[in-house]
Amino acid sequence: MKLGMHTLTQKRGLLFGGDYNPEQWPEEVWAQDAALMREAGVNLVTVGVFSWARLEPEPGKHDFGWLDRLLDLMAGHDIAVDLATPTASPPPWLGHRWPETLPVDESGTTLWYGARNQFCPSSSVYWERSLDIVTALADRYAGHPALAMWHVGNEYGQFCHCDESAAAFRRWLRERHGDLETLNEAWGTTFWSQGYGDWEEILPPRTAPYIINPGQRLDWRRFCNDQLLAHFRAQRDVLRARTPEVPVTTNFMGFFKPVDAWAWAAEEDVVANDCYPEPGDPLTPARTALTHDLMRGLAEGRPWLLMEQATTAVNWRPHNLPKPPGQFRLESLQALARGADGLCYFQWRASRFGAERFHAAMVPHAGPETRLHAAVRAHGQELRGLSRVAGTEVPARVAMVFGWDSWWALEDRGRPSDRLNADEQLLNYYVPFFERGVAVDVVPPGADLDGYALVVVPNLFLVSDEQAAWLDAYARGGGVLVVGPFSGIVDPRSHVRTGRFPAPLREVLGVSGEEWLPVGGPVRCRWSGGEDGFAAGTWTELLAAEGAEVVAEFADGDLAGHPAITRHRHGDGLAWYVGTMPEQAALGALAERVLADAGVAGELPDLPPGVEAVRRGEVLFVLNHGTRDVRVELPGRADDLLTGAPAEGAITLAPREVAALITT
Ligand code: GAL
Ligand code: ZN
């Protein structure tokens, strides 16, 4: 069987732990840490993420003694180690001796050492030195009883615009386009006299007087992603060759634009994420749930790992709100409910020095005799009682499509409106499903849609011919498809598809348009059934139905009487199109209609506001994100795995409380 989370959880059950940076502490503290970890139920720590300078104080001179002792200590306490390759933060000697390893931004400014992440993904010296330390680490710790997983680098997403990157970009472009003529055509270089006559003339996007060529920018994003992924892969291959039984991961940052997580997930054994929701944002529960659902999608439905979260405040926002008591537990259990088999934190012990000395930890500066650490301990213990959840899946009949290529292509300068963004559209469409307790899988363009009764495409600006055919076939074959505005607009070169839009989806949707009309304020719309209307904003389109039924139309302004939302019978299925950005309540009403079309219902009827319900395996998780007690009606009898108490017909949840119900 393929390596995955099960490789870790089979023996250990759910994972609990965090980043551990022992190099910041004298060895006496390590012994205390190990004892405290045991008491807290910690069974996994990530070690060595930023240890390169300690492991290799001078080029080629290794010092592994301290890490040997640490790994032995962990093994002695039965704590598994997720051992990091230290490549995210090279030692000063690398940049000092080989300045070409330092990244350069668009303006030509070198980014120096003194923080972290100062490497050029295309630097041959950086590649050489990083693979060297990775090889040494793998050789040394292959077979060590503590070694349970490899953590490659940290939060990949770096760019460099230097000359060496330019050369690598040109090689990549040759691969992709073959010859200059094809490249010139792909980038549309007849525009603004940009024709390239020699490969050497081609550069990464650098600070320029005005808007940079969108084809060049899109290819640059693809190249940067590929380059980082190649670096990940090179490390992974070194590790796999030496420890084929140890899974390899790296940590994502949710919907993080620089890296195409779909491409990365396919190359790793375990999908892991770092998640730092904003405590003050009312959309946090839904936004976080969506990110977790993305992770589950990346893991192809299998369990994933929450690698980093904070017990309370982070230190990198301008004003860092703490999490109220009970909040980090609620957030951990939310991740568990949505498919995580490991709940880990940054970091175990709060640093005394360095840039993150005011960042929360599992053991705060005040020590273990604190309410925070008591809560950490209690949480670690309660997870043991939930081990039957490990390995189970979250069944979903709704899929939402999200792709990085299209995101990159959409969000560039020079479009009709900067206010229509791919990730925000996804969240807007997701929220009503979240509020209704309807499970959603996030899937990439081209995914297998078998088993989904409803597929929502909030925005897919860039659509290939194959992807258009894929959506068409889904609806024709009996699915319910929903497509949001400004989808199907460009091809993979980011060239506009001419004709009435969305040209490649016109037939499936039975509607087409001729003008995009961003608006300054709200526009009234009305449902065709004569029910109350709703407001839309930001974006409208001049559409004409071509076989689709008009479900809502614009009610005022220039577009009065023209379609806003349509529904089209296509083959055995239905295809909805939304040519505007309806207010959230209207997206809720829309969700109800399309769910009815698809015959899908939420986990619990009439969920009170602020309450999340999601089923994982045989457990129905109900989470109260609100600040008041709520009563939640249940279909019948249930037993709560967390309290051990039975419930008949309904439960009452205090703020930030969670029920893990076995319903009977
Ligand atoms: C993550 C990072 C950690 C730490 C943490 C602080 O992005 O991987 O090393 O910096 O943020 O929130
Ligand atoms: Zn560079």
Classification by helices and strands: alpha/beta
Shape: globular
Determine the number of helices (DSSP H or I, runs of at least 4 residues).
18
CATH architecture name of the domain at 398-598: 3-Layer(aba) Sandwich
Biggest sheet architecture? 10 strands, mixed
Residue runs with pLDDT of under 50 for 5 or more positions:
none
**Fraction of residues in H or I helices:** 25-40%
Mean pLDDT over all positions: 97
In order across it, which strands form the biggest sheet?
Answer: 11-10-12-13-20-19-18-15-16-21
CATH hierarchy, class of the domain at 398-598: Alpha Beta
Radius of gyration: 26 Å
What percent strand? 15-25%
The CATH superfamily of the domain at 398-598 is: Class I glutamine amidotransferase (GATase) domain
Enzyme class: hydrolase
Protein name: Beta-galactosidase
Organism: Nonomuraea salmonea
GO molecular function: beta-galactosidase activity
Can you walk me through this structure?
- Among the domains are: 398-598, Class I glutamine amidotransferase (GATase) domain (Rossmann fold), CATH 3.40.50.880; 611-663, Golgi alpha-mannosidase II (Immunoglobulin-like), CATH 2.60.40.
- 32% of the residues lie in helices and 21% in strands.
- It has 18 helices and 26 strands.
- The strands form 4 sheets. It has a 10-stranded mixed sheet with strand order 11-10-12-13-20-19-18-15-16-21, sandwiched between helices.
- Helix 6 runs parallel beside helix 9, helix 11 (284-298) packs across helix 15 and helix 15 crosses helix 18 (584-598).
- The longest helix has 29 residues, at 214-242.
- The two termini are 33 Å apart.
- The model has no long low-confidence stretch (mean pLDDT 97).
- It binds beta-D-galactopyranose and zinc ion (ZN).
- Residues 103-104, 120, 122-123, 160, 162, 164-165 line the site of zinc ion.
